[in-house]
Amino acid sequence: MSTPILLALTSPVGPGCGSVLNANGDVEMDASIMSGKDLSLGAVSAVRCVANPVRLARLVMEKTPHCLLTGLGAAEFAAAMGVPAVPGEQLVTERSRKHLEREKQEAAQNPDQQKDLGTVGAVALDCRGDVAYATSTGGIVNKMVGRVGDTPCVGSGGYADNTIGAVSTTGHGESILKVNLARLALFHVEQGRTLDEAAVAALGYMKSKLQGLGGVILLNRAGDWAAQWTSESMAWAAAKDSKLHVGVNLGDTRVADLP
């Protein structure tokens, strides 16, 4: 029997209420989830008026023969599953409006700057030895309407396979998509590298090839886990053996007893 582990990453702005806004000032969200036991997965992209897109992604995994639903189709499926619709304006906060205004001003001066992100991700190991991941995001602030990043694309936003491990990613979505960051990290694990080495190698490749910044969290069935990033910081936490490990900046990890 395995020791359950939960490892999560987050950003100051996650999906749902208060999510970052697209160029029109609306919330569009992406999410995906995957089980390492049988590679079952579900994902949604460009969804609106849903409080928790990752729950909708799980319904795609459990209630349909498909892997990804998007836009109108995802909305119709949500309604059929009884997922409550949330008026779009209720997901928009004053803080997110100001964030969008500030980003538009900065983008006019520096259009090539990597934009602020809003991703929440988790990887987990249960007592049966099965691993899984889930990643959810509002994307990047001031994105084009309909833009979809790495999060709902399995292999980029995350991946889970009991024989290797589970990974969830965050960062510049277009860069993550180009290198298939999640699967790349697990490829390095398959080649015999430790989780930390695999994360560093995958992130280093993305940075060297594309100047793309990001972060990953990984775990395996043995109970090993790692959190690495090339961005300025990444908020993360891990729960294992009644201990909570948390960090934001490189080299700054705190450990406390779980209640």
Strand-helix topology:
Elements: E1 5-10, E2 29-35, E3 41-47, H1 53-63, E4 68-70, H2 71-80, H3 94-109, E5 117-125, E6 131-140, E7 158-161, E8 165-171, H4 173-179, H5 181-190, H6 195-210, E9 214-219, E10 225-229, E11 235-240, E12 243-247, E13 253-257
Parallel strand pairs: 3-4
Antiparallel strand pairs: 1-5, 1-11, 2-3, 2-6, 5-6, 7-8, 8-9, 9-10, 11-12, 12-13
Notable characteristics:
alpha+beta, 6 helices, 27% helix
Molecular structure report:
The chain is α+β, with helices and mostly antiparallel strands. The protein is 27% helix and 31% strand. The protein has helices at 53-63, 71-80, 94-109, 173-179, 181-190, 195-210; strands at 5-10, 29-35, 41-47, 68-70, 117-125, 131-140, 158-161, 165-171, 214-219, 225-229, 235-240, 243-247, 253-257. The strands form two sheets. A nine-stranded mixed beta sheet has the order 4-3-2-6-5-1-11-12-13. Strands 7-8-9-10 form a four-stranded antiparallel beta sheet. The radius of gyration is 18 Å and the shape is globular. 48% of the residues are buried. The model has no long low-confidence stretch (mean pLDDT 92).
